[in-house]
Design a protein that fits this description.
There is one protein chain. The chain contains 14 helices and 11 strands. The chain is globular and about 70 Å long. Strands 1-3-2-4-6-5-10-11-9-7-8 form an 11-stranded mixed β-sheet, sandwiched between helices. By secondary structure, it is of the alpha/beta class. The protein binds glutamine. Glutamine binds next to loops.
C-alpha cells in the first residue's frame, strides 16, 4: 500500500489517461478551456519515476485542474475572455509553483465566467458551462468549470477563485465541497485580478479531506504578494475525524427569512439539528448589515475591477484590433471587441463610483460600510467557533433565466458575500438533495485563519449526514 494519499492507480500515467478519457467523453459540458494533454502525460511519467525512487512530494498522484485565471507557465491562460484568448504566461503563479513542488499534475484549465464576473458561468467568451445532472441548468459561477470538473470526475480537485462566492456557490450547485480561504492565506501572485482586496483562490473537491490537503499546500506567506499573510499553516488533517461536542455555533437568522427556497431551508435546518444532537451548542445570531452586502460588494468590486482591467489595452499581451489607427482607436476598438457585456457593465459602474463627483457618495461610503461589517462580524463571532448558513438562497436555475436581469443574478450571492467583505474563511459542503435530485449546500464560516474549524465541522457533516439520491 502506498503512502501517497492521492494515488489512485498503479501509476500516475494511468490516472492521467483515465481523466483525459473522461474529459473527452464529457466535452459537451464545456468545463475546460484548455486541456494540457501532452504536458500532463509528460509530468505523470516524471512523478511515477519519483514515486519509484521514494522522492515524490505530498500531492503525488493528484490530478488537478485550475480555473483559467491562474497563470501557468507555457499554458494559455484566458480568464474566460477574448481579450486574453492568446495569452501564454511566461511564469507560474506562486500557488502553481507550490502544487508542482509537491508533484501534483495539472491536467488543464477550467472554464469560468469572464474575469470571474458572474454566478452562472454563462459569460465566458468560450461558451457556457452545463450542469452535469441536468444540462439545461447552470452549474453556478464563476468557478463553474471547476465545480463541474470535480462533480463529473474530470479532475480529482480543481482550484477556483472567490471574490464574492464563486467557489462556494458552484460547489453547492454541483454537490461538491468548496473552500473560500481567508484573505491573505493564499498568494495572489499570478492570479488574474478582478477585485484585489477580495480575490482569493481555494480548492473544490469531492471530499473535505481532499480540499484540506490541497489548501495546506497552496497556503502560506509569499514575498511576491504584499497582502499574503505570515501566519503559519497548520497540518489540516488533524482537524478531520473529530467530533463537534461543545463547539459553539451561530446560525444566521437572516438566511432563513422568506426568499429562501423551502427545500434548502429544510435541509440546512436538519443538518444543524444533527450537529446539535451530537453536542454542538447552537445559538441564533444576526448580522443586520447583511442587507447592505450586495450593494456594498458591487460598489467596491466594480471600482477595483475598473482599475485592474485598465491594463488590457490592446498594446501588450492582449487581443488587438488589427485595423485601428492611432493610440485611442487601438484602445477603444480592442477593448470594445475584447470584453464581453458583463465586464463592460462592471467597468462602467466602477468608473462611475470612482469619478470625482460620486467618489464620496459611493466608493468612500462603501468602504465605511465594509469596515462596519467587519466590526459586526468580529463582534458576532465573540464566543463562537463558527457560523452556519445556507450557501445559496436558491437551487440551480435554468440557463438564460437571469442573464438579462443583472440584479437577480447578483442576488444569488446574498449569503456568500459577507465572508468576502470581511475576509473570513467559509467552506460549503453538500448537506442534502432537493426532491428533484439537485444538490443543496451548507456553509461553515470561521474566524480569519481558522480554516481548520471549517474542515472539522464540514468533515463531520460529510461523514454523518445521509444524503439520499
Ligand atoms: N457572482 C459574483 C460576481 O459576479 C462573485 C464572483 C466571484 O466570486 N468571482 O461578482
Amino acid at each position: 500500500m502506498s503512502s501517497y494519499f492521492f494515488l489512485e492507480d498503479n501509476s500516475v500515467e494511468t490516472t492521467v489517461k483515465k481523466y483525459l478519457k473522461k474529459i473527452d467523453e464529457n466535452s459537451h459540458l464545456n468545463a475546460f478551456i484548455t486541456v494540457a494533454e501532452n504536458y500532463a502525460l509528460e509530468q505523470a511519467k516524471i512523478v511515477d519515476e519519483k514515486i519509484k525512487n521514494r522522492t515524490a512530494g505530498k500531492l503525488a498522484g493528484l490530478v488537478i485542474s485550475l480555473k483559467d485565471l491562474i497563470c501557468t507557465k507555457g499554458i494559455r491562460t484566458t480568464a474566460g475572455s477574448k481579450i486574453l484568448e492568446n495569452f501564454i504566461p511566461p511564469y507560474d503563479a506562486s500557488l502553481v509553483k507550490n502544487l508542482k513542488n509537491e508533484d501534483a499534475v495539472i491536467i488543464g484549465k477550467n472554464n469560468l465566467d469572464e474575469f470571474a464576473m458572474g454566478s452562472s458561468n454563462e459569460t465566458s467568451a468560450f461558451g457556457k458551462v452545463l450542469h452535469p445532472l441536468d444540462n439545461s441548468l447552470v452549474p453556478g459561477g464563476s468557478s463553474g468549470g471547476s465545480a463541474v470538473s470535480v462533480a463529473a470526475g474530470l479532475s480529482r480537485v480543481s482550484l477556483g477563485s472567490e471574490t464574492g462566492g464563486s467557489i462556494r456557490q458552484p460547489a453547492a450547485f454541483c454537490g461538491v465541497v468548496g473552500l473560500k480561504t481567508t484573505y491573505g492565506r493564499v498568494s495572489r501572485y499570478g492570479v488574474t485580478a478582478f477585485a484585489s482586496s477580495f480575490d482569493q483562490v481555494g480548492p473544490i473537491g469531492k471530499t473535505v479531506e481532499d480540499v484540506a490537503r490541497v489548501t495546506e499546500v497552496i497556503s502560506g506567506f509569499d514575498k511576491m504578494d504584499s497582502t499574503s499573510a505570515p501566519n503559519s499553516v497548520p497540518d489540516y488533517t488533524q482537524f478531520l475525524n473529530q467530533d463537534v461536542k461543545g463547539l459553539k455555533m451561530g446560525v444566521l437568522k437572516e438566511c432563513f427569512d422568506e426568499g429562501v427556497d423551502p427545500e434548502i431551508k429544510k435541509s440546512v435546518l436538519e443538518t444543524i439539528e444533527l450537529l446539535r444532537k451530537n453536542g454542538a451548542e447552537i445559538k441564533e445570531v444576526s448580522l443586520p448589515l447583511l442587507k447592505y452586502g450586495i450593494a456594498t460588494y458591487y460598489i467596491l468590486t466594480t471600482a477595483e475591477a475598473s482599475a485592474n482591467l485598465a491594463r488590457y489595452d490592446g498594446i501588450r499581451y492582449t487581443y488587438r484590433n488589427g485595423e485601428a489607427k492611432g493610440l485611442d482607436e487601438v484602445y477603444v476598438k480592442s477593448r470594445s471587441e475584447g470584453f464581453g457585456t458583463e465586464v463592460k457593465r462592471r467597468i462602467m459602474l466602477g468608473t462611475y463610483v470612482l469619478s470625482a463627483g460620486y467618489y464620496d457618495a459611493f466608493y468612500a461610503k462603501g468602504q465605511k460600510v465594509r469596515t462596519l461589517m467587519q466590526k459586526e462580524m468580529n463582534e458576532t463571532f465573540a464566543g463562537l467557533d463558527c457560523i452556519l448558513a445556507p450557501t445559496t438562497p436558491n437551487l440551480p436555475f435554468k440557463a438564460g433565466e437571469k442573464l438579462d436581469d443583472p440584479l437577480k443574478m447578483y442576488l444569488n450571492d446574498i449569503f456568500t458575500v459577507s465572508a468576502n467583505l470581511t475576509g473570513i474563511p467559509s467552506l460549503s459542503v453538500p448537506c442534502g438533495n432537493a426532491k428533484n435530485g439537485l444538490p443543496i449546500g451548507i456553509q461553515i464560516m470561521a474566524k480569519s485563519f481558522d480554516e481548520g474549524m471549517t474542515f472539522r465541522v464540514g468533515d463531520f457533516i460529510e461523514k454523518n449526514i445521509k444524503i439520499l439520491a
